[in-house]
Specification:
The protein has 385 residues and is of the alpha/beta class. The chain has two domains: 170 residues, Rossmann fold, CATH 3.40.50; 198 residues, Dehydroquinate synthase-like - alpha domain (Dehydroquinate synthase-like, alpha domain), CATH 1.20.1090. The strands form two sheets. A six-stranded parallel beta sheet has the order 1-9-6-4-2-3, sandwiched between helices. It has a three-stranded mixed beta sheet with strand order 5-8-7. Helix 3 crosses helix 4, helix 6 runs antiparallel to helix 7 and helix 9 runs antiparallel to helix 11. It starts with 11 loop residues before the first strand and ends with a helix.
Length: 385
């Protein structure tokens, strides 16, 4: 057991069906009088914008809507939102949507308060001070962005993904309402759910895990693997949605404290160069990186298999560890997400460049239980092809 470890996350977490209806009470807690509401663009088109409007209007509170966020957001979107927040003198930021929307909302909050530019804050600990108070409300069970200190963006000119990583990005409040996830389409449920599983497995096997992070990561693995199939094929099952969102929350806490590993390093270039969504990219690579990592964390992968419901009695550690990969592959197939890189339009001749780009996503590689070289990365891409 590690003698010294820390554990951080959102300052306050509220979880429960119907919790969204109390949003204005929580805005009041932070003395907010004119929030900037950052809303997922696709969600805005479904009529959810009217629901948000009704909530604020019924409480007699003004707000400013910024609903231009799409998947894999460009960096300049954060600057655009911050300009609006400053112009309208907003005193709080509410992010409602998937990981991309919450990432933009968190970045907007720190840019507006520090009056900088998004590109100045890319990297580790580049944000100089606190942001506007932030309330994050996930509508998918996936990224865990509501409890992390990271915001990830596409830099279109460079064709790469980069992130802001700072304790000032932690939300003051994470508000999770499983009811908001009931209408998520099955394909999005699958991609975001396996993304959350990826966070849980990576954080559990990270060399920087702690007894506390391992606790939440393992529970995330258990919850996600037991209920994701139901959510994909019976999306109206509220109990399953509750378990999946709780699993996503736990995975986010594990990620924030132990870090992710090589799956993320290899998936970032797929998003930057090809625009592949984060959840899909992680899903495609997860079993192949797991199999590569087995020798570096054999006992942990055996525990992962057990957490996923596999019977490992009387098996060797190696056999049990192999079952973790088999269980993940079966889950991916059952969720209709068995997609090779070739089907995503990835070109084999790009593998060397993708591998070199993956090596620049250094922090996840430092957490990985087995060293990864450029050649190893190319081999993993080939396996996933």
């Amino acid at each position: 057991m590690k003698n010294i470890f820390s554990f951080t996350g959102a300052r306050k977490i509220i979880f429960g069906s119907g919790a969204f209806e109390q949003l204005l009470e929580y805005v009041d807690e932070f003395k907010g009088s004119k929030p900037l509401v950052v809303l997922d663009g696709n969600l805005s088109l479904t009529g959810f914008k009217e629901r948000v409007s009704g909530l604020f209007e019924s409480g007699g509170m003004g707000y400013i809507l910024f609903d231009r966020v799409e998947g894999e957001p460009a960096l300049d979107l954060a600057d655009e939102g911050a300009k609006i927040a400053l112009k309208e003198k907003c005193d709080l930021v509410v992010g409602i949507g998937g990981g991309s929307t919450m990432d933009v909302a968190k970045a907007v909050a720190v840019i507006a308060a520090n009056k900088g530019r998004a590109k100045d804050y890319l990297g580790l600990n580049k944000v100089p001070g606190p942001g506007l108070p932030k309330i994050m409300i996930p509508t998918t069970a996936g990224t865990g962005s509501e409890v992390t200190f990271t915001s990830v963006f596409i830099r279109k000119a460079l064709k790469k993904k980069e992130g802001m990583n700072s304790p000032w990005l932690y939300p003051e409040l994470a508000l999770l309402d499983p009811v908001l996830t009931l209408s998520v389409p099955s394909n999005v449920t699958a991609a975001t759910g396996i993304d959350a599983l990826c966070h849980a497995i990576e954080s559990y096997t990270s060399i920087n895990s702690s007894p506390l992070s391992e606790l939440v990561s393992l529970e995330a693995i258990r919850l996600i693997s037991s209920d994701l199939r139901t959510c994909v094929h019976d999306g109206g099952n509220l109990k399953a949605r509750e378990n999946l969102l709780l699993g996503s929350l736990y995975a986010g806490l594990g990620l924030a404290n132990a870090g992710v590993t090589a799956v993320h390093s290899l998936s970032y270039p797929l998003g930057g160069k090809y625009g592949i969504s984060h959840g899909v990219a992680n899903t495609v690579l997860l079993p192949y990186v797991m199999r590569y990592n087995l020798p570096g964390a054999m006992e942990k992968f055996a525990v992962v298999a057990e957490a996923m419901g596999e019977v490992i009695d009387d098996l060797s550690i190696r056999e049990a560890a192999d079952m973790a990969v088999d269980a993940v592959e079966a889950l991916i197939v059952d969720c209709d997400m068995d997609i090779p890189l070739e089907a995503l339009g990835i070109k084999k001749e790009d593998f060397p460049d993708l591998a070199k780009a993956a090596m620049t996503v250094a922090r996840p590689l430092e957490n990985n239980p087995r060293k990864v070289t450029v050649e190893d990365a190319v081999d993993i891409y080939n396996e996933a092809y």
